[in-house]
Amino acid sequence: MSTPGVLSFTLQGWEQVLAKVKRALVYLDAACAESLHWGCGPTRLMEAVGGPVCHLREFQPNAVGGNAEQPKAVFVLSCLLKGRTVETLRDIISRSHFQYCVVVTALSHAVHLTANHVPAAAAAELEGQQPVFEQLEEKLCEWMGNMNYTAEVLHVPLLLAPIAPYLALTPAFASLFPLLSQDIHLLNSARPDKRRLGSLGEVDSTALTPELILQMRCLVSGLSSLCEHLGVREECFAVGALSRVIAADLANYVPAKNRRKTAAGRASVVFVDRTLDLTGAVGHHGDNLAEKIISVLPQLPGHTNDVMVNMEELTALQTQEEDQNVIAPGCLAQANDLAAKALWEALLNTKHKEAVMEVRRHLVEAASRENLPIKMSMGRVTPGQLTSYIQLFKNNLKALRNHCGILQLGLATVQTLKHPQTAKWDNFLAFERLLLQSIGESGMSVVLNQLLPMFKPSTQRTNDDYGPEELLILLTYVYSVIGEFTVDKDLGEAEEKVKKALVQVFCEESELSPLLQKITEGCWHPVTGAEVAQ
């Protein structure tokens, strides 16, 4: 898979969208906004919209509609044009004054046929036709109030958010998670006794729920479009139960079969279930600055892979409440800033110490180009030293504009190095090594008993103690590295103690984080019956 091909795949998709947005209200859902964010940046979209005012809006039921001076709308969506999505389209258009509506969907017409339960044989006969899209175009005109108005529905494969030339993510499928052994019971509940599944190894597409089949087909559609853009016929490999099903579905996907007949190149595609590397996801083994930045700084709202960078150090905030300015957060994605993109790739590719030195080098070079009075210093790079370089740009509007990307990454580095959680990173790593040693020497029950004293309520914790999220990370790490094990009396008793201690910690928290609220939603205290989230 060539790097230019992967990047151009996203850019080519957005160029098709940008060609439609001139002087339009643009509504994006979260996944498409994230693809834009990393792919070409919102500035390109605003330039394409043109006009004195650019209106970008989140696609949601209560989104503001268009007034009489706003006759055109473009909706850019990552989801199926079905159900709640169509209802939201209807609600927004009905309370607006649109005369021209364009709906861009990241999912192919073939997927929409699957979602509408069209049999494969009938779908094959519709090749070259798009009845689902055509029916929605008629509905759009009806909602606009005049069948002579203009409506377009088109497919653009906005699958990827390319965070680096060699690394792209799929925001629309961030919640797609592999099947677990416990899911066998749920799958069997909808199957006759004679066709009951014995293990995950027996799962195929016919055993999945309709919702999961649709989500899988949506992913397959995007991957097939990527392979078409690259001009390759893929050979699929899979590790894990759900990955095996997805690989088989891509192999049997009718548009993919037709594409492979004429593709000149070849590519290997490896699918791996996320559950097979939970240790890597929760461990603190990495010596990578980008990993620490993403782990420590608060998440950028609506995004799965970017963070908020506090930019107040570069602005002169007024102290009077009535004149208080709102400072938008910085971020890691700098799609149109070549220097910042080079620095971001260095943060991803190099070890922590080298990455921090790269940040200093880029700040020094930026200050030199602006003729700022920088004082060079050698030796170890400190947060204070980086801050002093960044402060040189304060209130210098021209310099801020010229090097905004570098400054955002520089501040992200400083804020990460100063963050209390970063100090815990090495402690986590050391403790994980001790846990590994204990598992090898003493077994799981001993390890859990070693963890018990660490379960402390908020009123008894110090800054050096682990909170609920960190305890869950440690437990996930332990159970991931140990693999399969036999439950005996000692282990059963140790697990019960850990469960009770964890529930007690959750119940005594004054406020749960958003993540813990999601985890504990619907969970009940085993003794009192009180809801843990409360």
Automatic annotation (TrEMBL):
<protein>
    <submittedName>
        <fullName>Sec1 family domain-containing protein 2 isoform X4</fullName>
    </submittedName>
</protein>
<dbReference type="GO" id="GO:0016192">
    <property type="term" value="P:vesicle-mediated transport"/>
</dbReference>
<dbReference type="InterPro" id="IPR001619">
    <property type="entry name" value="Sec1-like"/>
</dbReference>
